[in-house]
């Protein structure tokens, strides 16, 4: 369920919903959209990732990955955006964001977990195409040494940052492999959306919330979405929703 016991005990006294997030984080976008769809009040704790505000001892004590988002719900800490939005939809009944049938709900989880399981491929594509050429997203040796000491929770994420911040960075093969994974995901989506309005069932769901932020961030890296014509109608329907405007557009820098 993504629930953890924080070492930073200060958050356990929080009342209501508190979200640690960042403007351009695709995972944070998911949670903001879900909160808006549910009509829930929440307190914002906005972090500047470029300034390393997610890498402080204080924040690692809340989220042992040092990433956003983190939701604190009446003192209960939940990490991983897929788990967060699933928990929100189960706990807060107004405006259900899941299909009615068990079969369609399983389809919803398929799409949610596909996005979660392939998040490092998306990060590789983004960092490789935006951060690597400019070098602006690389950490200093001292910052990396500090990160290596703190990051003991997600070793795959640690390896990702070690590779990106090495002298070699990502290779052409790394980028090609990441691109193949992403291409496969979007081809599956395009096939589904050829004859369906939504990714799971007959209505907007957590599956759609999980994937729409990927289009936002990958567009910045000039990913060729024109190769997937059936995504266009789906995308246009979502970006007109108030939750997208309030949960994504309103937070963009």
Automatic annotation (TrEMBL):
Record-annotated membrane-spanning stretches: none
InterPro entries per UniProt: Glutathione-S-Trfase_C-like, Glutathione-S-Trfase_C_sf, Glutathione_S-Trfase, Glutathione_S-Trfase_N, GST_C, Thioredoxin-like_sf
Domain GST C-terminal: 101-253
PROSITE patterns cross-referenced by the UniProt entry: GST_CTER (PS50405), GST_NTER (PS50404)
Domain (GST N-terminal) ranges: 15-96
Coiled coil: none
Name assigned to this protein: Glutathione S-transferase family protein
Biological source species: Vibrio algarum
